[in-house]
User: Fold this.
Amino acid sequence: MKRAKITIVGAGNVGATCAHWCAAAELGDIVLLDIPGEMADMPRGKALDLMESSPIFGFDSNIIGTNDYADTAGSDVVVITAGIPRKPGMSRDDLLATNAKIMGLVCEQVKATSPEAVVIVVSNPLDAMVQRALQVTGFPPARVIGQAGVLDTARYRSFLAMELGVSVEDVSALLMGGHGDTMVPLASCTSVGGIPVQQLVPQDRLDEIIDRARKGGAEIVGLLKTGSAYYAPAGATAQMVEAIIRDKKRLIPCAAYCDKEYGVGGFYVGVPVVLGTGGVEKIVEIDLNDSEKAAFQKSVDAVKELVETMATLV
Ligand SMILES: NC(=O)C1=CN([C@@H]2O[C@H](COP(=O)(O)OP(=O)(O)OC[C@H]3O[C@@H](n4cnc5c(N)ncnc54)[C@H](O)[C@@H]3O)[C@@H](O)[C@H]2O)C=CC1
Ligand SMILES: O=C([O-])CC(=O)C(=O)O
Assistant:
């Protein structure tokens, strides 16, 4: 059987760690690409280092590092992590001008070399960056997706498991909206071992946990000082890669292009989707209560404002 080809653009913290998770899960052959210049050999060094771990872990993925998009040609999945991360005191939105330009350059190349790929965008500010990737590649929206919800939900699920002293495997949750401070964890869609979370955690404590999940990215930035989170973000991205490559039809939250869906009107926002070989195969519309609807709308408005600002910058 032909192995899947996975390209990861940006061989920094998130990109290289994503390559690691994808290789460990034997999802396919991996091309790790970064820019030429002083650090041109860095992706080759990381790819070789990872390859040298393959006999230990027993994976047969071929991993190469490069600065040349020709090596990425015909990829099935392209993950874009290229761009700058934030540092303490910055918001994700502060990355807009720099990363919108980088996203444009990267997507021109992806469009030319892997026209059939499903593209997963990770760079921040996430929802605006996926919109930029859609604009520049011109790919069908189902094949241009953003990673945020799997990570944000994983943070929320981790905090709940810690709170209750139970396995993370038994915590199931959903979160919608943009990947910013306005994201909307849905208590009504959270359960532990099938039990609605509100029967297990008092509302005031649940509100604190939700608030921590919402600010989870900033919490890690504050601890690391030099950049932002990468283990969980890379793991979340690898889970999306797996859903696509193995056609798993996972029902998970991703930043998907919503037009009529949820009345969004042509923007990317986090919603539950069915993810398979075709990318976003379905956007699942659920009933939200009035306060959830209001919170979701606030989040959509914040995304729209950012996309409008981006239009003045690129
Ligand atoms: N969506 C999400 O949930 C998350 C998003 N992020 C975002 O992911 C991005 C990457 O974060 P890190 O890996 O921590 O940063 P990093 O600085 O470790 O790596 C970024 C890499 O992108 C490369 N790069 C820059 N311009 C490029 C170009 N034109 N072509 C190819 N590569 C290029 C850099 O050389 C660098 O190696 C940031 O924007 C960060 O905010 C990070 C964590 C979670
Ligand atoms: O917080 C950041 O800047 C990186 C990110 O998106 C996250 O970890 O959720």
